[in-house]
UniProtKB/TrEMBL annotation:
InterPro entries: Methyltransf_12, SAM-dependent_MTases_sf. It comes from the Bacteria. Residues 30-106 form the Methyltransferase type domain. This is Methyltransferase type 12 domain-containing protein. It comes from Sinorhizobium meliloti CCNWSX0020.
C-alpha cells in the first residue's frame, strides 16, 4: 500500500495540495505531475524569470504577512534557500507558512550556512560587495551559522521543528549512488549544511498515539518518505543519475522506493506507518 502511494508521485494521481516557493525546474515538473496536479501551486517574488513554467507561477511577497495568511491551506509547503533573500524577520515567515498547513501537513525547507554563528543585516544601504562577503551573495540579507542554526530554527519553530537525517534512511553506498554522500556524512555526525532539510509538521487528527524512532510521528514519517522520493526522483530526472549508475532514472527511483521501505524500520514500525497513511 505504501509503495503504491509513493509511486503516485509525479503522476496525475498524486493529489496532495502543495505550496512551492522559488520552484526548482526538476521539482516543478515532478510535483506538478508535468502540469496535471491541479493542487500544486508555486510562487516567487519575480515569477517572470521562470520561463519553463509558462506563466503558471504566481507573484508572492513572503515579507507581506497579510498575503501569507491569505494563502490556501496546504498539505506540503516547500522552499529551498529562500529565507536568506527576505528583508524581514524570517521567524514571521515560518510562523505564517506553518499557519497555512492542513492537519498532518508538513513544511520543509533548506537554508544556506557558514562556519560560526548567524549573521544578518537588513539595511538597504549595505554595499553589494559587503553582502557578498558576509552572506555569500549580493542579494542575501542573512546567513545561518553552523554553530547555532539548529538552535535558532528549533526556537523559531516553537520547539516543534525537526531535521530530516539521510543516515536514518539510506546506507552510505546508497547515498554515494545518489550523489548525496556529503549531506549523508553531515547528517551522520549531527551537523548542519546548505542541504540540511528542516521540517515542521502540524499535528494530525487521530494519530497522536503512533510513535516512531527519533521521536517522529506517524504522519511525519509518511510525509517525509514521500518527500524524499520526490527529491530523489527530481534529482535523477535532472542529472540522469551519476557516473556510477547507467540505469534509467525511473528504474533507480522505483528501486529506491523498495529499498527505503525495507530499511525504514522494524515490522511494527512499518505496520504503524501503513495504518497512519491510510
Amino acid at each position: 500500500m505504501m509503495k503504491g502511494r509513493l509511486q503516485q508521485i509525479g503522476t496525475a494521481s498524486f493529489d496532495r495540495s502543495i505550496h512551492h516557493f522559488a520552484p526548482e525546474r526538476s521539482l516543478y515538473n515532478e510535483l506538478s505531475a508535468h502540469g496535471k496536479n491541479g493542487q500544486y501551486r508555486c510562487y516567487d517574488f519575480s515569477p517572470e524569470i521562470y520561463k519553463f513554467a509558462n506563466g503558471r507561477i504566481k507573484r508572492h511577497d513572503l515579507c507581506d504577512r497579510d498575503a501569507n495568511r491569505d494563502l490556501a491551506m496546504a498539505d506540503i509547503i516547500l522552499h529551498n534557500h529562500v529565507l536568506e533573500h527576505l528583508p524581514t524577520d524570517f521567524r514571521h515567515v515560518l510562523d505564517d507558512l506553518n499557519s497555512r498547513l492542513a492537519p498532518g501537513g508538513i513544511h520543509v525547507f533548506t537554508l544556506p550556512t557558514k562556519g560560526g554563528k548567524y549573521d544578518e543585516d537588513l539595511s538597504p544601504n549595505l554595499a553589494p560587495e559587503e553582502r557578498k562577503r558576509r552572506f555569500a551573495q549580493e542579494d542575501h540579507v542573512r546567513i545561518f551559522g553552523r554553530d547555532d542554526a539548529l538552535e535558532m530554527i528549533g526556537e523559531a519553530l516553537g520547539g516543534n521543528g525537526s531535521v530530516f537525517r539521510l543516515n536514518h534512511y539510506l546506507t552510505p553506498a546508497m547515498a554515494s549512488v545518489f550523489g548525496v554522500r556529503n549531506s549523508y556524512d553531515i547528517d551522520a555526525r549531527g551537523g548542519v549544511g546548505g542541504s540540511t532539510v528542516f521540517y515542521y509538521e502540524k499535528a494530525a487528527v487521530g494519530v497522536e498515539g503512533a510513535t516512531f524512532p527519533h521521536g517522529q510521528s506517524a504522519m511525519t514519517k509518511a510525509g517525509l518518505a514521500e518527500l524524499l522520493i520526490e527529491l530523489i526522483d527530481a534529482r535523477l530526472a535532472e542529472t540522469g543519475g551519476t557516473g556510477t549508475s547507467k540505469r534509467s532514472s525511473s528504474e533507480v527511483a522505483r528501486q529506491t522506493i523498495d529499498l527505503l521501505v525495507d530499511r525504514i524500520g522494524s515490522p511494527d514500525f512499518y505496520r504503524n506507518l501503513e495504518e497512519a497513511a491510510e
